[in-house]
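Amino acid transporter transmembrane domain-containing protein: structure, please.
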Amino acid sequence: MELQKTDTESNGGLSDEEYEPFRHRRVKKPNSTNGTIIHMLKGSLGTGILAMPSAFRNGGLVFGVIGTTLVGLIYAHCVYLLVSTSQKSCKRTRVPVLGFSETAQSVFRHGPAPTQRFANAAKAYIDYSLLIVSFFSVCVYLLFIATTLRDVINNELGIDWDTRIYILLTAVPLIFVTQVRDLRYLVPFSALANTLILVTFGITLYYIFREPIDLSNRELFPEITALPSFFGTVVYAVEGIGVVLPVENKMKHPQHFLACPGVVSIVLSFITVLYNVTGFFGYARYGPGTRASVTLNLPSEEKLAVSTQLLAALAILFTLGIYYYVPMDILWRKVKHYFPAERHNIAQIGIRFGILVAMTGLALGVPELEPFIGLVGSICSATLGLLTPIVLDTVFRWSTPGAFGVFRWRMVKNVILMAFGLFILVVGTYFSIKDIVEIYG
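Here you go.
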């Protein structure tokens, strides 16, 4: 990111309360508040919305609404904790901006004595977790697009092309999409992807509502054994923590991010409503036969229904730019000193292309990649999206008298949220390992 990292010389002996990080940020090509909303929407709004009816099949109509709203609130709170902790760390260390891993490093380094030795380890863990999740997700999305194109095109044209051909065809436009380095120039891609997902959402709702819905034979509450699947689907559909600080750090008016109403409240309220509507009415329509993606329940003989699969695939294609931005920003900061300044442009082009080639090769060679990615995603996403913001908030407040509030209620709240995050972590890991054993056992 083209951000000024330090601004200590002009601040003299200012106290934490006097130092205002936003005033000292030097951001080239900052994003507007609306552009930030678009990026945040794209970070959480994806094809996961099409899996929400399946989640409600496991959770039931009543508990599904309650559980989805609860997850939305918890995730919104975790985003708030992460951003507010980062901003407070900026004030304490008198720097204008901190990224995700830098925030963790700062919090641990200036936290209680027992945590200080883990500062560098915390930074490295977050950096490498984001790299692993983001780059390997490219393989999954590449395979998703290729499989969708194979099913639709082979059926429409009466041909029998292998999935690998479609993987190679999909990789061609990605050569150009993944070369976009400026977050501002990714706004049109994110906006288009959001539009395609919403159109897919609208077409799906058309098929759901075109005939009367009968709720008489639908489950209202879940079986206990189905709860893990319900929460696992919802959490991984909503979570997009990797893009939060990068987009907040590039805002023209960062004070709008946590405002009320602000970027976080607007985006996650909208996401929660969409997910509830899709999940509730999708399950109400298709009942026990609801499939993993609700688009698969749509009539395959109708062109409009088939188009939803293509629109979802295109949305993922245009989303890959923003997914590439976060890990490439991390990776480039780690390796750019190995290249002369005059060759930075060529180096970036080569690295971005090389990683795409590697991920494409992995998708070609291991078509059952999803279970392994699910395992990595379960471990890293649960810790990054839920547990990490809670831990950072707790460590930051630990040495400050009264920071946990009356009767230390914030500590109690953090412990409860941490228990929920650990539950999601264990459940997601268990089911991913189970899938791997079933495929390769």
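Notes: Residues 1-14 have pLDDT under 50 and may be disordered.
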